[in-house]
Design goal:
It is a single chain. The chain is an alpha+beta fold. It folds into two domains: 230 residues, nicotinate phosphoribosyltransferase (Alpha-Beta Barrel); 144 residues, Aldolase class I (TIM Barrel, Alpha-Beta Barrel). It is 40% helix and 17% strand. The chain contains 18 helices and 18 strands. The strands form five sheets. The chain has a seven-stranded antiparallel sheet with strand order 14-13-1-5-3-17-18. Strands 6-12-11-8-7 form a five-stranded parallel sheet. Strands 2-4 form a two-stranded antiparallel ribbon. α5 packs parallel to α16. The longest helix is centred in the N-terminal third of the chain and has 32 residues. The protein is elongated.
């Protein structure tokens, strides 16, 4: 399916050209996070958003899609298709088409976009970018693009902001319980793909995750950064390790059970189904760590049947094999209450469950005590938990490990679609709003101030953002020519061309060294 750039609108946009006052030659709009009221927050949330994603969107939409589906197609073909779409929905003669023909004749998008540098952390109510037309005949184009600008902007920023919050939490507990922060780049791993809203959503959201971490299972996010952010100039874009899933584990276990039932000694024992599965999983796990992956990092999903037996009895049985491997075996529980599975449940019926996974692994494999007095598991074993890990839960788990005397580096979190999908444009109150126009050569302040919701009050007039020692500051109600002076919003796109581009390495350095 190939969508067209011209049709990336809400229907009411097609009639707005005729609604602007006669003599309008410019419309100036901005994109701003207005409130963090609905944003999932950690206890150390500082109210700043991570600027990210506009560059990739500009390249694939403003350049690639507009050229491919509009400017590089015959004008008659474009106009006929657009007329058919409009008349089918709105009726014949609903609008005229001369302005679309004129845009095609022009041969480029007469738009300028200014944005804060990607990787910047900016306060709520500070505009992230502005957009205005550069040719007086195309004043209508600025807000014709509002819907797609909003739809393709808010998610990347929200995901990048969420990921940075996870990093802040990991850094906090590393400072308290670890000798260094070497593990943090890999402590939160993107598991979100299967719960996202399609390919581009996965790519753009997953790219936001990779500003703060290197661990991901979303290949598309790596592709996206490679294509649109010169990811090949970074030492690493994103990494993962070989890992089992329930289908590979349970299929092997089922095949091994069939084999075991051909042995008279097994039949004579009259084993229960649970006991048969336990024997079969022992055999598969041993093959997994000695034959399939005899060295290197590998992850094993451990809760297909009896997680607590897997993490204790079977892990203990093959302790020598695990310690003899070059690399790490990472156990992955995938069900139950993460806090209780990792840190232990004092009300559980068995001692193993009361201790929790990290303490059980410590008792089997040992480790070291770091300079801060916290226990660090032997480097041949680890634990990753990727089910239902929210910011609040991750923070609680790290606090629980600290209380038990374990370093935060002992756990890796899989961060999934509950984090990256269970958000909306309202999480940070994003909106694209016009704040200025030029009508009959006069600069006009445009704003909204609904009495029913003060949070939706917009800025007034032409505006810029200046950087102060206390952070960014909005300066509005200025003349258009003043946006060129001391403006932290830099021109990144103008008249169909990318003017300023950032690499992944630039963005990571700006974000993580902030």
């Amino acid at each position: 399916m190939k969508l067209t750039a011209l049709n990336a609108i809400d229907w009411y946009k097609v009639s707005h050209k005729e609604q602007y006052p006669k003599g309008t030659t410019m419309v100036f709009s901005n994109f701003t996070p207005r409130t963090d009221k609905y944003m999932p927050k950690s206890s150390i949330w500082d109210g700043k958003v991570v600027v990210f994603g506009l560059q990739g969107f500009i390249k694939w939409y403003f350049i690639d899609l507009w050229n491919e589906t509009f400017f590089n197609r015959p004008k008659s073909e474009v106009i006929d298709a657009y007329r058919h779409r409009v008349e089918n929905a709105l009726g014949k003669d609903a609008i005229t088409y001369d302005h679309i023909e004129a845009l095609h004749d022009l041969g480029y998008l007469p738009i300028e976009i200014r944005t804060l540098p990607e990787g910047t952390r900016s306060e709520i109510q500070i505009p992230i970018y502005t957009i205005h037309n550069t040719h007086p005949d195309f004043f209508w184009l600025t807000n014709y693009l509002e819907s797609v600008m909003s739809a393709e902007s808010w998610k990347s920023i929200t995901s990048a902001t969420s990921a940075y919050q996870y990093r802040q939490v990991c850094e906090l507990f590393a400072q308290k319980t670890c000798d260094n922060a070497d593990h943090i780049n890999f402590q939160c791993h993107d598991f979100s793909f299967r719960g996202m809203s399609g390919l581009y959503d996965t790519a753009q959201s997953g790219a936001g995750h990779l500003l703060s971490f290197l661990g991901t299972d979303s290949v598309l996010a790596i592709d996206y950064l490679d294509i649109y952010y010169a990811g090949n100039q970074s030492p690493v874009i994103g990494v993962s390790i070989p890992a089992s899933e329930h289908s590979t584990a349970t299929t092997n276990i089922a095949v091994i059970i069939e084999k075991l039932l051909n042995y008279p000694t097994i039949i004579a024992q009259n084993l229960s189904d649970d006991e048969l599965r336990g024997l079969a999983e022992e055999e598969f796990f041993h093959d997994y760590i000695t034959k399939i992956y005899p060295s290197g990092f590998c992850s094993y999903v451990a809760d297909s049947y009896d997680y607590w037996r897997m993490i204790s009895e079977i892990a203990l049985k093959y302790k020598k094999d695990i310690l003899a491997r070059e690399g790490k075996v990472v156990f992955r529980p995938d069900s139950g209450d993460p806090m209780l599975v990792i840190c232990g449940d004092e009300n559980a019926p068995t001692e193993i469950e009361r201790k929790g996974s990290i303490e059980v692994l410590w008792e089997i494999f040992g480790g070291t005590v770091n300079e801060k007095g916290y226990k660090v598991l032997d480097p041949h074993v680890g634990l990753i938990y990727g089910d239902s890990i929210t910011l609040q839960r991750a923070e609680a788990i790290l606090a629980g490990l600290e209380k038990k005397g374990f370093a935060s580096s002992n756990i890796v979190f899989g961060v999934g679609s509950h984090t990256y999908q269970y958000v909306t444009r309202d999480s940070l109150g994003f909106a694209v709003k016009a704040t200025a126009a030029i009508v009959n050569d006069k600069e006009i302040m445009v704003f909204k101030a609904p009495k029913t919701d003060s949070a939706k009050r917009s800025a007034k007039g032409f505006l810029k953002v200046i950087e102060t020692q206390l952070g960014f500051k909005l300066v509005d109600q200025i003349a258009f020519e003043e946006i060129e002076i001391d403006n932290a919003l830099k021109t990144v796109f103008k008249n169909g061309q990318v003017i300023l581009s950032y690499t992944l390495e630039d963005i990571r350095c700006r974000l993580l060294n902030n």
